[in-house]
UniProtKB/TrEMBL annotation:
Stored InterPro entries: AB_hydrolase_fold, DUF676_lipase-like, Lipase-like
Name the UniProt record assigns to this protein: DUF676 domain-containing protein
PANTHER family: LIPASE ROG1-RELATED-RELATED, LIPASE YOR059C ISOFORM X1
Low complexity compositional bias, start-end: 49-72
Domain DUF676: 105-335
Annotated segments matching region Disordered: 43-82
Organism annotation: Clitoria ternatea (Butterfly pea)
Gene3D superfamilies attached to this UniProt entry: alpha/beta hydrolase
């Protein structure tokens, strides 16, 4: 019989052997094509990490434009071109991540699922069960319930604050948590973006043994762009994933596809929207607030007095946007994939290996810029769009604001995943298919959920390996 000390040594050796097996899978599988951290450190020197420096870009004193105070969470040592990913295939790791990363049965990775407009926790029934099955006990999968149904009409900021409070309560109840990720559908992605800005910073929640938690997170972050002290609710941020989220709002040509791009309908939609969906409607159509103040979604593409929105996003190791290229009646391809119209190109029609209807993956490194601005011409255009909307002035206003939002969000690296349900039995259900709202009616999206689960497993492995070897 072995004594306790020898048993521990045997278990340690077994752990290293399992990790070597995983590394072999990673080396041979096209699924692990590139990490999502977008670190400028060469792969050969990944163990030599350095903390990200936050630089403050002062507001311009020029009379021609006004800019936000911006604290950058980006890395600028990249080219401006994204890399096309190879076809991705499922990785079979043999054992669950839980058996490698956590010797106890308590979960240490919180995955928050956030639903969209006029929805409820029931929207995640299939995805929650599938994620639990695929990810193992190391993940605590929590479905947010603080913004159900008409609560989604009270504004992105109000819903975001409620979501932040809800997450804090979960963290307080579960002392074993060390990492946090988000998976959001539709409007829920904007709620989550607001919530993480509220939760951003190490002092957001004073956990017991905070020093031990910080040390643990520093160890796990080797080889990533995560720097000590940048936390969400006191936890290390890993994945921020959105499915068909209108990151640029819904104003403009075909951003709200069920209007069919008809100019008169798009012109009337903005003033009517608040009557149907409340404060959230004006925020999505970029007409909220006084004329001289940038709309909320533009402020959320920066670090400003309302919150460190970009720094909070930049703290995550991986940011992924899934976008329907067609047949989505609620959210257009451009706004959900954070692209300009001239950046949209005809996607492949063939699904990636093992992930039906997932047709393309593109890795987009950060694009250095001076951040978003709200120039005087935008102020005038906003006032005209609010008081006397017509096709010309609303189009001008939208073009200005959309370009500035993209400029701000592109300061971070993103993985952009295109989804096409053109061959599905019910392609017009694309908006609900993408997260399998109903297992029987929207089951065309099961390949998307599988792709999400394997992406989460990939980042979990990448986070565990440096600390384990």
């Amino acid at each position: 019989m072995l004594d306790n000390k020898k048993k521990k040594n045997v278990r340690a050796c077994l752990g290293r052997r399992e990790i070597r097996i995983i590394l072999q899978h990673m080396a041979t599988s096209p699924f692990i094509h590139a990490p999502c951290a977008y670190s400028p450190i060469p792969s050969s020197n990944r163990n030599k990490t350095s903390s990200q420096q936050q630089t403050s870009i002062p507001s311009s004193s020029s009379s021609s434009s006004s800019s936000f105070t911006f604290s950058s969470g980006t890395n600028s040592g990249h080219g401006h071109q994204g890399l096309r990913a190879q076809a991705m295939s499922t990785v079979t790791l043999g054992k669950s991540i839980a058996s490698i990363g956590n010797s106890k049965s308590d979960p240490d990775h919180l995955l928050v699922l956030v639903h969209g407009i006029l929805a409820s926790t029931g929207d995640w029934t299939y995805a929650e069960a599938e994620l639990k099955r695929r990810l193992g006990k190391n993940f605590l999968i929590y479905v947010s319930s603080s913004n159900t149904y008409t609560k989604t009409f009270t504004g992105i900021d109000g819903a975001g604050k409620r979501l932040a409070d809800e997450i804090l309560q979960v963290v307080k109840r579960t002392k074993s948590l060390k990492r946090i990720s988000f998976l959001s559908h539709s409007l829920g992605g904007l709620f989550a973006r607001y919530a993480i800005a509220v939760l951003y910073s190490i002092d957001t929640y004073n956990r017991d043994q905070l020093g031990d938690l910080a040390n643990s997170m520093t160890e796990n972050s080797q080889g990533t762009n995560f720097s000590r002290g940048r936390t969400i609710a006191g936890l290390e941020p890993i994945n921020f994933i959105t499915l068909a989220t209108p990151h640029l709002g819904v104003r403009g040509k075909k951003q709200l596809p069920f209007l069919l791009g008809v100019p008169i309908l798009e012109k009337l939609a903005a003033p009517i929207a608040p009557f149907f969906v409340g404060r959230t409607g004006s925020q999505l159509f970029l007409t909220d607030g006084k004329p001289h103040k940038p709309p909320l979604l533009l402020r959320m593409a920066s670090d400003c007095e309302d919150g460190k929105f970009l720094s909070a996003l930049g703290a995550f190791r991986c940011r992924v946007v899934y976008a329907n290229v067609s047949y989505d009646h609620m959210v257009g391809w451009r706004t959900s994939s954070i692209r300009r119209e001239n950046e949209l190109s005809k996607p492949p029609r063939q699904s990636l290996d093992g992930y039906k209807h997932v047709v393309d993956v593109e890795y987009c490194p950060p694009v250095p810029s001076d951040g978003p601005q709200f120039p005087p011409k935008a102020v005038k255009a906003k006032e005209a769009a609010q008081n006397a909307p017509n096709t010309q002035n609303t189009a001008e206003y939208h073009e200005i604001v959309e370009d500035e939002m993209i400029r701000g969000l592109q300061r971070l690296g993103w993985k952009k995943v295109d989804v096409s349900f053109h061959s599905a039995f019910w392609p017009f259900f694309a908006h609900n298919n993408i997260h399998v709202k109903n297992e029987w009616l929207h089951n065309a999206g099961v390949g998307v959920i599988a792709h999400v689960a394997d992406s989460l497993r990939q980042q979990e492995v990448l986070g565990i390996l440096p600390a384990s070897l």
